[in-house]
Specification:
- The complex is a heterodimer of chains A (about 210) and B (about 180).
- Chain A is an all-alpha fold and about 210 residues long.
- Chain A has one domain (about 25-210).
- Helix content of chain A is about 75%, strand content about 0%.
- Chain B has about 180 residues and is an all-alpha fold.
- Chain B folds into two domains: about 5-100, Rna Polymerase Sigma Factor, Chain: A (Orthogonal Bundle); about 120-180, Winged helix-like DNA-binding domain superfamily/Winged helix DNA-binding domain (Arc Repressor Mutant, subunit A).
- In chain B, about 65% of the residues lie in helices and about 0% in strands.
- The radius of gyration of chain B is 19 Å and the shape is globular.
- The two termini of chain B are about 35 Å apart.
- Classes of the chains: A mainly alpha (about 210), B mainly alpha (about 180).
- The interface between A and B is medium-sized, with 29 and 40 residues.
Chain lengths: ~210, ~180
C-alpha cells in the first residue's frame, strides 16, 4: 500500500475511531493502591495490635521505606509511560528508601545486642513475607501493566520491571501492617527478596504486554 | 538530531493540536509532514545496503504507531521529540526483526533450490498457518484479501466495515504476521 493512501485512511478514520484516552497516572496509582488494599484485607488484614504498634518507630519505619519505594517507582513510571518524557533523572529517587533502610539497619545493629541479630533477621514470618508480598503485588502489577499498555512506553522491559518495584512497594506497605517482624534486619533481608520476585515478573510481562 | 527544517518541526505542534480538536485536514497535513520527517530519519538510521528491507514499510509502521498512540501526546508538549521517540522505537523494532533473518542474494544460490512446484503444499500451508495466527477482524480481512483474492470494496461490504478500516486491518494483520513469523 502507498504511504499517502495509508495517510488518507488514517486521517479519514480519525474522527470515527476516537483516540484512546489517557487516564492520569495519579489515578492509575490510586486505583492500584485500592486493589492492593482490597486483596490485603481479603487475605490478611492488619495485625490485632496495629493501632498500638503505631507508637513504635520500628513499626512505622516499615511504612516509610515501602511507601518511598512505591512513590519513587511511580514517579519513574509516569515518565516511562509516554515517549520522550523524562524518567532517567528520577531514578535517583530509588536511593531514598534504600538510604532510610540502611539507616534503620545501622540503628538496629547499634541498639540490639549481637547475639539477637540472627534471630531478629530470620524472624518468624520469612516464608509468609516471601509469599504474601508477591500475592498482594501481582494484582497491583496487573493493574499497572494494563494501564501502561494503553500508553506508549518505549522501554517495555524496563517499564515492566519498574512497575514491579511499584507493586512491591505498595504490597509491602500493606503486608507490613500485618507482619509482626518489625526489625529492620528482617525487613532488609526478606522484603527485597519478595520485591525481586515482582520485579522479575514485571520485566518478563512488560517485555510481552507493553510492546506496540 | 532533527534532520528536518525547524519550521516544519514547529508546524507539527500546531497541526497536531488542531488535529486532536477534530480537524481532519490538519491531521492529514500532520501525517504528511510527519511521514517526510520520519522518512529522512529512517533513511539515515537504516543500513544503506539492506536487501529485503523497505524504508517505506518502516515509515508506514511508524505512522500507524503514531496514529494508534496519538493520545500519548499532550497539547503543550513539543511534538518533535515525541515523534522521534516513536520513530526510534519502531526502527529498533524493525532492525531487530531483520537481524534475526538471514538475507542471501538469491542469484548466487539459485541452482540449489528445489523447483517450487515440486512441493505444492508448502506455501499454502504456511499461508494458512500465518492467517490462522491472527484474530478476529484482521484474520477475516487478510484471509479475504490475500487468500480469497477479494477486492477491498467487496471485503468492506462483506464485513460491514469501511474501506479505510479494511486497509488498516489488512496492514496491521500483515505486520502482525511479519512480527510473529519473521522471528522464527
Amino acid at each position: 500500500m502507498q504511504t499517502d493512501e495509508l495517510i488518507a485512511d488514517l486521517a479519514g478514520g480519525s474522527r470515527r475511531h476516537a483516540a484512546g484516552a489517557t487516564v492520569p497516572f495519579g489515578a492509575v496509582a490510586a486505583f492500584a493502591l485500592l486493589v492492593g488494599f482490597g486483596v490485603f484485607m481479603l487475605l490478611l488484614g492488619p495485625r490485632p495490635d496495629f493501632v498500638a504498634s503505631l507508637a513504635t518507630p520500628r513499626f512505622d519505619v516499615k511504612f516509610v521505606e515501602t511507601g518511598l519505594l512505591a512513590a519513587a517507582a511511580i514517579a519513574v513510571l509516569a515518565g516511562l509511560a509516554r515517549p520522550a518524557r523524562p524518567w532517567r533523572e528520577r531514578l535517583g529517587w530509588f536511593a531514598v528508601p534504600a538510604i532510610v533502610l540502611g539507616l534503620a539497619v545501622a540503628a538496629e545493629l547499634a541498639s540490639v545486642p549481637e547475639h539477637l541479630w540472627a534471630a531478629r533477621a530470620i524472624g518468624s514470618n520469612a516464608k509468609n513475607c516471601l509469599l504474601a508480598i508477591p500475592t498482594i503485588g501481582m494484582p497491583v502489577l496487573a493493574v499497572l501493566l494494563f494501564a501502561l499498555s494503553r500508553q506508549a512506553p518505549t522501554r517495555p522491559r524496563l517499564t515492566g520491571a519498574i512497575a514491579g518495584f511499584a507493586s512491591a512497594g505498595i504490597a509491602a506497605a500493606f503486608y507490613a501492617a500485618h507482619c509482626t517482624d518489625d526489625s529492620p534486619l528482617f525487613v532488609a533481608i526478606w522484603y527485597p527478596l519478595a520485591t525481586l520476585v515482582l520485579v522479575a515478573a514485571g520485566a518478563v510481562a512488560g517485555g510481552r504486554m507493553l510492546r506496540w | 538530531m532533527a534532520p528536518a527544517s525547524s519550521s516544519k518541526l514547529q508546524g507539527l505542534d500546531d497541526l497536531l493540536l488542531r488535529a486532536v480538536a477534530g480537524d481532519e485536514k490538519a491531521y492529514r497535513a500532520f501525517l504528511t509532514d510527519a511521514a517526510q520527517i520520519v522518512r529522512r530519519f529512517a533513511a539515515q538510521r537504516m543500513p544503506r545496503h539492506s536487501p529485503g528491507f523497505d524504508i517505506e514499510d518502516l515509515v508506514q509502521e511508524i505512522l500507524l504507531a503514531v496514529h494508534a498512540k496519538r493520545h500519548t501526546w499532550r497539547p503543550g508538549e513539543p511534538v518533535a521529540p515525541w515523534l522521534f521517540a516513536i520513530a526510534r522505537y519502531k526502527a529498533i523494532d524493525a532492525y531487530r526483526r531483520r537481524g534475526r533473518r538471514i538475507e542471501i542474494d538469491i542469484d548466487a544460490i539459485g541452482d540449489v533450490f528445489e523447483d517450487p512446484s515440486a512441493v505444492p503444499n508448502a506455501t499454502a500451508h504456511d499461508v494458512g498457518r500465518a492467517v490462522a495466527s491472527l484474530g478476529g477482524r484482521q484474520r477475516a480481512v487478510v484471509s479475504a484479501l490475500s487468500v480469497e483474492g477479494k477486492s477491498i470494496t467487496q471485503t468492506a461490504r462483506d464485513l460491514d466495515m469501511s474501506e479505510g478500516a479494511v486497509r488498516v486491518a489488512f496492514h496491521r494483520g500483515l505486520a502482525a504476521i511479519a512480527r510473529k513469523f519473521g522471528k522464527d
